[in-house]
Specification:
Elements lengths: L3 E11 L4 E12 L4 E5 L6 H8 L7 E6 L2 E2 L7 E4 L11 H5 L1 H5 L4 H15 L14 H14 L4 E5 L7 H18 L2 E5 L3 H7 L2 E5 L6 E6 L12 H16 L18
Parallel strand pairs: 3-8, 3-9, 6-7, 7-8
Antiparallel strand pairs: 1-2, 1-4, 4-5, 9-10
Length: 266
C-alpha cells in the first residue's frame, strides 16, 4: 500500500482581488518507509504540499491520501515539523515533547515514559527540565523532533526544519534525522532549499517547477543512507545532477559556485 499519494492535486490561494495557484495537477506516490526530499524554486508550492498532506489545507482539485484513506483533516499518526519549531516557551522541554500526547489524551504516566524515551533518542534527555529559551537552535530542533518521536508518527513531514542552523549544527541534525529514519522506518517527506541536504536525506528527490508547482523530475538516490555517502563520488555526482535540473527550472544560476566542494581528480 502507498503511504502518501497526491492524485492530480491543485491548490489555488484566493486573496483579496487576486488568486494565486500554488500547485497544479501534482501526482506523486510515496511508499511506506520511504524518505523523500522535495526541492524547487521559492514559491513553487513545496510547503503547500506538506500542509495538504497534514490535512491543514484542502485541495482545490484532486485529493491526497495517507495509508489509502483520503485526507480530510488532521491525522493522529502524522507529525509536521516547521522551521520555527512550534515550541511553547512557558513549558519545559519534557512538557513540549509530550504536548502532542497530551492533546491525544494519553495518560500522564504513559506520557512520562514516552517522552523520556524520545528525549533520549534525540540526545537531549539531560535537558528535560529546561525551557526552550535556555536551548540552542540545534537543541530546539532536537526537541521538535522528540515531539514527533514521542507520537510514534508513521509519517513525518518536515518543512525546512534545519534552514536556520549553522553549517556544523545542520550536518549534525541531518545525521540525527537519518539515524531516526534508519531505526524507526517511518515515511518521511523533507522540504528543503539545500541540494546537499536533499541528496543526503532523500532516497528519492522530487523537483518542482516554478509556481504553479508541477512535478518536473524525480531523481532516484539509492545510495542514500550508506556509510560515508556524504564524501563519496556518487554523492557529488547526484548533487551535480540535481543542480543541473534546478538550473533548468531557474532555481539556481548555472554559473554560480557549486554548493559543495568540487572533488579533485587524483
Amino acid at each position: 500500500m502507498v503511504s502518501l499519494a497526491f492524485h492530480n492535486v491543485s491548490l489555488t490561494y484566493e486573496g483579496s482581488g487576486r488568486a494565486v495557484r500554488a500547485l497544479d495537477a501534482l501526482t506523486l506516490e510515496v511508499m511506506p518507509g520511504e524518505p523523500v526530499a522535495v526541492i524547487g524554486p521559492s514559491g513553487c508550492g513545496k510547503s503547500t504540499m506538506l500542509l495538504l498532506a497534514a490535512g491543514l489545507l484542502t485541495p482545490s482539485e484532486g485529493h491526497v491520501e495517507v495509508g489509502g484513506a483520503q485526507v480530510v483533516g488532521v491525522r493522529r499518526a502524522t507529525a509536521l515539523i516547521l522551521q520555527d519549531y512550534g515550541l511553547l516557551p512557558w513549558k519545559t522541554v519534557a512538557d513540549n515533547a509530550g504536548l502532542g500526547l497530551e492533546l491525544r489524551g494519553v495518560s500522564r504516566d504513559e506520557r512520562r515514559t514516552l517522552v523520556a524515551e524520545a528525549l533520549e533518542r534525540v540526545g537531549i534527555a539531560d535537558f528535560a527540565r529546561a525551557y526552550p529559551g535556555e536551548l540552542s537552535g540545534g537543541m530546539r530542533q532536537r526537541l521538535a523532533l522528540a515531539r514527533a518521536v514521542a507520537l510514534d508518527a508513521d509519517l513525518l513531514l518536515m518543512d525546512e526544519p534545519l534552514s536556520a542552523l549553522d553549517a556544523l549544527t545542520r550536518e549534525d541534525l541531518q545525521d540525527v534525522l537519518l539515524g531516526l529514519w534508519q531505526r524507526r522506518g517511518h515515511t518521511a517527506v523533507l522540504v528543503t532549499h539545500s541540494i546537499e541536504e536533499a541528496v543526503y536525506l532523500g532516497r528519492r528527490i522530487v523537483v518542482l517547477s516554478p509556481r504553479p508547482g508541477r512535478l518536473s523530475a524525480v531523481v532516484d538516490n539509492p545510495a542514500m543512507g550508506t556509510a560515508g555517502y556524504r564524501s563519496s563520488p556518487a554523492f557529488y555526482e547526484r548533487c551535480a545532477q540535481l543542480r543541473g535540473l534546478l538550473a533548468g527550472e531557474g532555481a539556481v544560476h548555472p554559473g554560480t559556485a557549486p554548493e559543495i566542494p568540487v572533488r579533485a581528480e587524483s
